[in-house]
Amino acid sequence: MKECKKFLYILAIFLGCFYLPIENLRFTNAIFEALALVKWYAREHVLLCLVPAFFIAGAISIFISQASVMKYFAAKANKFLSYSIASVSGTILAVCSCTVLPLFSGIYKRGAGLGPAIAFLYSGPAINVLAIILTARILGWQLGLARAVGAVLFSIVIGLLMHLIFLKEERARHANADFNLPEVKETRSLAQTILYFASMVAFLVFANWGKPLEGDQSIWFLIYRYKWWIAGLSLLGLLTMLLKWFRKAELKEWTSATWGFALQILPLLLVGVLISGFLLGRPGHEGIIPSRFVESLVGGNSFSANFFSSIVGAFMYFATLTEVPILQGLLGAGMGKGPALALLLAGPALSLPCMLVLRSMIGMKKTVVYVSLVVIMATLCGIIFGIITK
User: Fold this and answer.
1) Around Cβ 6, how many Cβ atoms within 10 Å?
2) What is the domain partition of the chain in residue ranges?
3) Cβ(351)–Cβ(318) under 8 Å?
């Protein structure tokens, strides 16, 4: 039986190579888009987004005590406190759906309950204060407000539903795991730990601070103008703290944990970005699926339009803030406001690369349920918003 499967795999690969439609312009263009997207992703997001996120995740797994995680995010923690903190965490993290994955993995492996961890996973990229403001300014205050309110409620509801659906498995996980082992005495004060993490988060946020609109002279432009000074100072502060407050053994353990996250996540992300680019292309460019086909399906406020918009948003990769100009073009092409909100709620928090990595972290079943909940709720919210703003 095993030899038969091997033969079928070889036959499938051979037939794929034999009938490879390299003479088809759309196919070759889709390949170019896949490579162009992964090149852009490697240049724009790996060094300044993913690498800092890997270091933060490694630090969480090594330097954040289990008692702290269990206090705020464990399954038995105060639900109001844990979900409140998780649902607004994205306001300080200007990250995409892929960059938040190492951070999610860090707190989940440290003992966080599935519900609060999922709420954090969704809120990280979805409740980006810059994206909310940009949405309101470019697409209108109604979409901006609906996105902000919807994202906060989404993270709480989806987290609670995931907790209830997998309640039995979560109880078994916490009963069998070593989350309650005696804690090692802290070698640094709480203030030192906060400053250490704040310096890394500051570098992540300000190094990736997006350029404001042309002519914008607000506080956002001032921060953008001096972002490298701020990021540089935060990095200098981090290096000073590492030299003064940390032992060599701790630093070695931290870098080892960081490397583990990179090995687990980065290959899957790059494969996912390639597939996403091949199917849907880059913003303003087509992949194998024609953009006119997408636009013809998201007009009006029907269930199918909202559902399709949620599906496209869930599988397409959106870097931080890029969903706004994409939606601006789609709205100009006839996209309804309901489907626009559905895409805003599903898109930034999900992507094909995100799904591939998430599957390796929490398993296929939990990943499918999480993605399904996001798509269903985004569809329903889009329909309701479309009716209200009609």
Assistant:
1) 10
2) 34-174+247-388
3) yes
